[in-house]
Design goal:
The structure holds two protein chains of two kinds.
Chain A (H helix, E strand, L loop, with lengths): L2 E10 L2 E11 L4 E5 L6 H8 L7 E6 L2 E2 L4 H5 L2 E4 L11 H11 L4 H14 L15 H13 L5 E5 L7 H17 L1 E6 L2 H7 L2 E6 L2 E7 H8 E9 L5 H6 L3 E8 L4 E6 L6 H11 L3 E8 L2 H13 L1
Parallel strand pairs in A: 3-8, 3-9, 6-7, 7-8
Antiparallel strand pairs in A: 1-2, 1-4, 4-5, 9-10, 11-13, 11-14, 12-13
Chain B lengths: L1 H15 L1 H34 L6 H25 L1 H8 L3 H6 L4 H29 L8 H28 L3 H17 L8 H10 L1 H9 L5 H27 L2
Helix pairs in contact in B: 1-6, 2-3, 2-6, 3-6, 3-7, 3-8, 4-7, 4-8, 6-7, 6-11, 7-8, 7-10, 7-11, 10-11
The chains are: A alpha/beta, B mainly alpha.
């Protein structure tokens, strides 16, 4: 168990940012940490990385208690905060050397670690440039390089793809997947596809509490909504559609363009039957798409289930 | 060891900004002017001094006033150097790099302190070089000069410790500078309130930076004065560590 956090609480004054949150992460896992703004993602990550002391609870990194023996525990940690901690007046090489020295690397090992991190983050060309002059994307990569420089078993990345262009995002996701093979990665984001493409497990938190902690397939199930969008060239007969087994209701979304929302059972999918009916009747099938929940709807969904 | 890594980065960042160069140049210019003025004054007095039996020497008339003035000028300058130490890192959110590295808060504070002390040490060397140059043509009172250098080192170490503490309090460098300037000036002038009440006088007099500094520059190296500075430095460094640790507990 590389990260083992139990019953974490964190209060800011009277506001409770994180309540009774437990978290565990093993080698080779990439845990996606999802939540709307202000859910307590960053607070939890700061606690796991020793930047913030929890009000209650315990945290073990690689079996070492972070609160009792912080110096030893932090050797096993690499952390990229929300705002990458960069010194703008240093060059990339100088900065990475400094980070390496803070982790006790010297001489040949330091050079090797620095070159390795630069290669992994695509920074070979900018080693001698000032960090302050780099674009946002490159600065973000320097931040990631800093977190993986000393090859820590645990890598914590707080919104690593913010501010990057689509190509860079793909590269960084690839990098994170690579990291996941040898390290345990804790990754926070509010972009749902990112979690689906990168993570092996997902943890959704809402108002400081864990709403869902499950393998990625479980999230897929939550994302499938129980409705379909149907568009046809000619108007359909609502009665015949509703008569199909599994279909509950039909709602007209757009009258002149014949767009409908078809509600159905959560477990079954009547798309096939609907398609056959529409074709048989010659209504002219234009579109038939399952509605996927957005992340906000999943939160609503999950929290509503909890309340029920 | 980690403290030295932080100190080296701090010193490097200081010299990467124009601030350190600018401060070194301005301080040197002002003190060189004062130094030359003192030499002129000495030359004017020389015929009269020659008649006196137990007359003050060249060290008393040139080096001691020079170090006295250096104390005042650096009181204005040190807050500018210490203001960024923690406040800027806090504002740029770079503190989390240190907090998540295997470095204790004590090492962070010590590293920052040593970094700024290295620059101030350089400044002391440059100031000392001026009276030292007189040894080419005359005999200096080496004991007295050594006492002056020790006094300036202790004074600057105290300034830096207070400045560092104020920097851990503030989230904006300028606020830290104003705060430490106020604190230093208050400690400088605290014994000005001349009271008839002797008990009060003693306490305020003991607190005064100026009084201890003057004792030392006169060549009177006593444990009372040296321990005053050591206590002051230790107190503010410990307070800085406590304050920075509090960041982690309550943000």
């Amino acid at each position: 168990m590389l990260i083992d956090a139990r019953n974490l609480y964190r209060f800011y004054g009277d506001t409770c940012a994180v309540a009774d949150l437990s978290l565990s992460l093993e080698k080779g896992e990439i845990l996606g940490f999802l939540g709307p703004n202000g859910a307590g993602k960053s607070t939890t990550m700061q606690m796991v990385c020793g930047n913030l002391a929890p009000s209650a609870g315990e945290i073990r990194i690689n079996g070492i208690d972070l609160l009792d023996r912080p110096k030893e525990a932090k050797r096993h940690l690499g952390y990229l905060p929300e705002v990458p901690p960069l010194y703008r007046e240093l060059t990339v090489d100088e900065y990475l050397d400094y980070c390496g020295r803070l982790h006790g690397l010297t001489g040949a090992r330091l050079r090797h670690a620095r070159d390795e991190a630069k290669a992994r983050c695509g920074l070979e060309q900018v080693g001698r440039r000032l960090i302050g002059n780099l674009s946002k994307g490159f600065q973000q990569r320097v931040g990631i390089a800093q977190a993986i420089l000393h090859t820590p078993p645990v890598v914590v990345l707080d919104e690593p793809t913010v501010g990057l262009d689509p190509i860079q995002i793909r590269e960084i996701r690839g990098l994170i997947r690579d990291l996941g093979r040898e390290h345990a990665v804790l990754l926070s984001t509010h972009i749902l596809p990112e979690v689906q493409t990168v993570c092996s497990r997902v943890m959704i938190i809402h108002r400081g509490r864990v709403a869902l902690n499950a393998p990625i397939a479980e999230l897929e199930r939550h994302m499938r909504a129980s409705s379909l969008i149907l568009a046809t060239r000619r108007p359909v007969d609502a009665g015949q559609l509703k008569a199909l087994s599994g279909v509950h209701d039909l709602e007209v979304l757009d009258e002149p363009n014949h767009r409908y929302q078809v509600y159905h059972d959560r477990d079954g999918n009547p798309a096939e039957a609907i398609a056959r009916l529409v074709v048989e009747k010659g209504w002219g099938l234009l579109e038939l798409t399952p509605v996927r929940h957005s992340i906000e709807e999943i939160f609503v969904d999950i929290t509503r289930q909890e309340a029920a | 060891m980690n403290a030295l890594v932080i100190a080296a980065r701090e010193l490097r960042s200081l010299f990467l900004s124009p601030l350190a160069w600018c401060i070194l140049a301005v301080v040197q210019l002002l003190l060189a002017y004062i130094f030359l003025a003192q030499i002129e004054y000495f030359q004017m007095l020389q015929p009269r001094l020659a008649v006196l039996s137990d007359s003050p020497g060249v060290t008393d008339l040139i080096a001691v006033p020079l170090f006295g003035n250096a104390g005042v000028i650096l009181l204005l300058v040190v807050p500018l150097l210490t203001m960024r130490l923690i406040a800027e890192e806090r504002r740029n959110r770079t503190l989390s790099l240190l907090f998540s590295a295997p470095v204790s808060v004590g090492e962070i504070v010590l590293g920052k302190y040593l970094g700024v002390m290295a620059l101030l040490g350089l400044m002391v060397l440059m100031i000392t070089a001026m009276p030292l140059s007189l040894s080419l043509g005359t005999h200096l009172d080496w004991g007295k000069l050594a006492a002056c250098v020790l006094a300036l080192c202790l004074l600057l170490a105290a300034f830096a410790a207070i400045g560092l503490f104020l920097s851990t309090l503030a989230s904006q460098p300028v606020v830290a500078a104003v705060g430490s300037f106020g604190a230093l000036l208050l400690l400088w002038i605290i014994d000005w309130s001349v009271t008839i009440d002797t008990e009060n006088e003693k306490v305020l007099g003991y607190l005064s930076l100026l009084r201890h500094y003057e004792n030392l520059t006169k060549g009177l190296v006593s444990t009372v004065d040296v321990s005053y500075f050591v206590l002051l430095i230790a107190t503010f460094l410990i307070l800085s560590i406590r304050r920075l640790d509090y960041d982690r507990l309550q943000k």
